[in-house]
Amino acid sequence: MATVKLKNIKKTYPNGAVAVRGVDMAIEDGEFVVFVGPSGCGKSTMLRMVAGLENITDGEIEIDDRVINKVSPADRDVAMVFQNYALYPHMTVRGNMAYGLKNRGLPKAEINQKVTDAAKMLRIHDYLDRQPNQLSGGQRQRVAMGRAIVRDPKVFLFDEPLSNLDAKLRVQMRIEIKRLQRRMGVTSIYVTHDQTEAMTLADRLAVINDGRIEQMGAPIELYNNPATLFVASFIGAPQINLIPVQFDGKNLNSGDLQFSGFKDLPENTDLILGIRPDVLEPNNDGQLEMQVDLVEQHGAENLVYGALNGASTTDGYNTEICFKTDQNTQPAIDSVLKLHFDQNHAMVFNKETGERLI
Amino acid sequence: MSNINWRIILNHTILLIGVIFMSLPVWVAFSTSTHSAETILREGLQFWPGTNFIGTYREVLFEQGGVMKSVLGITMLKNSMILGIGFAIGKVIVSMLAAYAIVYFRFRLATPLFWIIFLTLLLPLEVRIIPSYEVVAGLGLLDTNFGLIVPLIASATGTFYFRQFFKSIPEELLEAARLDGATPWRFFVDILIPLSKTMIAAILIIMFVVGWNQYLWPLIMTTKEENYTLVIGIKQIYQILSEGGELPQYQKAFALTILATLPPVLVVLFFQNWFVKGLVESEK
Amino acid sequence: MKRVQFEHSTIPYLFIAPQIIIIAIFFLWPAAQAVHQSFLLEDAFGLSSQFVWFKNYFDTIGDASWRQAAWFTTVFSVLVTFLSLGIALLLAVKANEVIRGARTYRTTLMWAYAIAPPVAGLMGNLMFHPLIGDLYKFLNAIGWDFNHKLDSFDAGFVVVLIAVWKQVSVNFIFFLSGLQGISKAVNEAAMMDCKSPTRRFWTITFPLLAPTTFFLMVINITYAFFETFGIIDTTTGGAPGGSTNTLVYKVFQDGFRGADLGGSSAQSVVLMLIVLALTVIQFRFIERKVHY
Ligand SMILES: Nc1ncnc2c1ncn2[C@@H]1O[C@H](COP(=O)(O)OP(=O)(O)O)[C@@H](O)[C@H]1O
Ligand SMILES: [Mg+2]
Predict the structure, then answer these.
(1) Do A166 and A19 fall into the same domain?
(2) Which of A224, A249, A268 is the last residue of a domain?
(3) Which of A11, A35, A45 for a ligand 1 pocket mutation test, highest count of atoms within 8 Å of Cβ?
(4) Beta strands A241-247 and A212-217: pairing type?
(5) Which of A194, A224, A254 is a domain's end point?
(6) pTM of the model
(7) 3-class secondary structure for B119-168?
(8) Is residue A357 part of a domain?
């Protein structure tokens, strides 16, 4: 059980690449925190600094209020699950799980007990004497988890642990990881680029962009109340609809479209109107008009895609729009629909700075 | 589909010519070695084995004065074995340790030391043979196994094989091991050596062949007949045989060539897959 | 290098020490001595020596026999490299193509790797022996007035033939594994795009083999320069009249047989410089072209 604090953490690689540009965060005991962001944003670097696998260029990391910048990885009492599992290929499952305990000089009987317990918990008890290359992807994943669990660490670190699994297993393991963490109550940091994984796993979510935290909070808070354009577009699937607009003092304008009822916005500035797909609904009095070109049936719900008629273009292309509806609503291709949205659920961002204005 | 058949026939023809080109000389050497000196002088090289196999090889291997004044074939065989095995083992140990330091440690002199090691690849023993000889002679190491084997280890081919291999091992393995509390020595023993087993075997095989086949260095290093290896011995023998006034003993010369060829060839054939894998790993 | 490494102040030095000590004593020290001696002139009895600046170098380069050796080495290296690479590539392509007996072909074509160059030289020598050598008799029988003891072209022919024979198997192994390393999908895509096997080879396979070929060229030139020592020493011994001297063989002869230490050291140093220059050229100009 432990708290983890990052205090103005920075990382510059020896080759000059700046990966982390000053991150502050306090993780509470037993909390499950997920770092999410696009590839290359610095998530892994942050995690690896916590693990002690990378030097910290600047700032301090504390585990249980003890500064661990200079402590070796083995003495930090953290365990990590890697994307490619990093199992020792020449050791059996048992050997893999026991190796860290052996190095700590635990008595044999105790090691055996711990390995057996962890293996039972993960349902890999039958494979203890196999080598990693005799296991399926999902089983290897469990062994990697087992290796972390037996150590009884203060902190679990996960670096995209599910990325090498197929879609179905990924969902299954996601649920299992969450259950396990709940049960064991170990403070965990989990890195992923997959927003669904992030939303579903996190107690708290940190959206990372270019080495900085864009926003941190409960997943639903970030979904409903993104602080920036980046967070709004990164969180939520399907992605939020973004309509380029300008404010003329009374209305928001986009090409031939006008949206009234907005105020306190800067004039002559490029703005973005953001509307989540589930906020839109077909309605003959709607403010928007769309020409349908694709309907995706997901079973319980349908996603309808098309072009937004009359709007300004986005980067030279027709602005696209998507809304979510139930399985019975199935507009014909090329039909034209009016869509309505509740103004209270619309967001407005500064296009240049990404700042949320409304 | 008849043109496809022609293609197959052509392929096999080319390959068979290649096989004959590569194998015939050795076959002829073997066949000839089993005939008597008179037959060879009268009829020339032989394409089919004769009846003198046991006689010739026994004389060459075990009889004093069978080939040279004092040294027996079997002694030279033993010397070659010592050179091949000693060189292979020494090389694997030294180069594996060095490659481990280079790949897995950050230390101050890493770059200059790496370049020094790299330099040895470019400048083989042959270009600095005379000063090398003087150094070894100065240290009183002429005619010793140590003086014969250790200077050959100076060239860093093995280090580069291992470096290449270590670099191909996933990085996360070291990271996981560090989180598991492995010290540098434990990581080396518990993880790196077991993972390198195939590679070690392959390099042992390659280096055995390289060591066995050394020529120039043993030639200048050994002054006493009893220290001759087969590879350098046969040249002297060949000279003696063809200079002597009596009937030239060509069958013995051929028999010695076969003896010098057989052990490395058998090793390569027997461990073919490891050998090829290890050799090819050095590329890139 | 690895992203993550151990940081430790003494252990890496302990691990690397054996290699470095051996290199220092048996490589750096002799190499330094070679450079030092190359500036000295010894008297006839080796009792005293005198610092003569670059005299030994000028003597070396000005010496007609050295230039002859340099020329022979160049021609020899080019011939050996191209012939052995060409033959090996042909055999590797065929061995990769056939299905029946592929493994047997591989084995029988690669095992000559294990034969020492001087042993190959001796075998060749016996094949070309004026009394019993069938090749000698054969060449004379077809009207070639062949005598490698007297004729320098014939002597060159013998050493090139043996050197190529000895080197084909290494090249074959690398080419074959290079061919097997080309992904099946690429081959299948090529089959759909291009009907002619020959054209497919030159437009797809051969370019993909370029890194292997480059690597082998480096290996083969090194081989022709240095490792063929044993072949030359056991066949022609540089004869007739030094016409089959390679640079390495001449260093050896002048240093050991002729006891001209200063001159032989200067030759060594020049040879080192040539090798370094060749390596730099290969890496700078050729390698840049083979990346795909
Ligand atoms: N060892 C390294 N040396 C130099 N730059 C690196 C290194 N590792 C990562 N980077 C750079 O740092 C940035 C962040 O990398 P990383 O933390 O791995 O991103 P993420 O895990 O979010 O995809 C990237 O731009 C990457 O190129
Ligand atoms: Mg990452």
Answers:
(1) yes
(2) A224
(3) A45
(4) unpaired
(5) A224
(6) 0.83
(7) HHHHCCHHHHHHHHHHHHHHCCCCCCHHHHHHHHHCCCHHHHHHHHHHHH
(8) no
Minimal-distance CA residue of chain B relative to A78 = B179
Q: Give the CATH number, domain containing residue C176.
A: 1.10.3720.10
Interface contact A88-B170, CB threshold 8 A: no
Residue A201 lies inside a defined structural domain of this protein = yes
In the block, tokens 């014939």 appear at C154
Same structural domain for residues A33 and A167?
yes
Residue span of the structural domain in which A201 resides: 4-224
State the DSSP H helix or E strand holding residue A190, giving kind and residue range, or none if neither. strand A187-192
Per-residue model confidence as pLDDT tens for chain C (292 residues): 566 677 777 888 899 999 999 999 888 888 888 888 778 776 656 666 777 777 777 777 778 888 888 899 999 999 999 999 999 999 999 998 887 888 889 888 988 889 999 989 888 888 887 777 777 778 877 777 777 777 888 888 899 999 999 999 999 999 998 898 887 778 777 777 777 778 888 888 888 888 888 888 888 888 898 888 889 988 887 778 777 888 888 888 877 776 677 777 888 888 888 888 887 777 776 555 554 4
Atom in ligand 1 nearest the alpha carbon of residue A48: 17
- Region of residue A59 (phi > 0: left; psi between -120 and 50: alpha; otherwise: beta): left
The CATH number of residue A183's host domain is 3.40.50.300
Contact assignment for C272 to B276 by CB distance below 8 Å:
no
* Inside any domain, residue C4: no
Q: Which residues in chain C (210-229) have CB-CB distances under 8 A to chain B?
A: 211-212, 215, 222, 226, 229
* C224 falls within a domain: yes
Degrees (nearest 5) of the Cα angle B164, B168, B171?
125
Find the helix or strand (DSSP H, E) in which C158 lies: helix C152-181
Q: How many domains does chain A have?
A: 2
Helix (H, G, I), strand (E, B) or coil at B79: helix
Within 6 Å (CB) of ligand 1, which residues are found?
Answer: A 13, 15, 17, 19, 37, 39-45; C 3
The angle at the Cα of B88, spanning B230 to C218, to the nearest 5 degrees, equals: 90
Question: Is B231 in contact with B260 (CB distance < 8 Å)?
Answer: yes
Atom 20 of ligand 1: nearest residue by CA position:
A40
Q: Report the C-alpha gap between C231 and C80 in whole angstroms.
A: 13
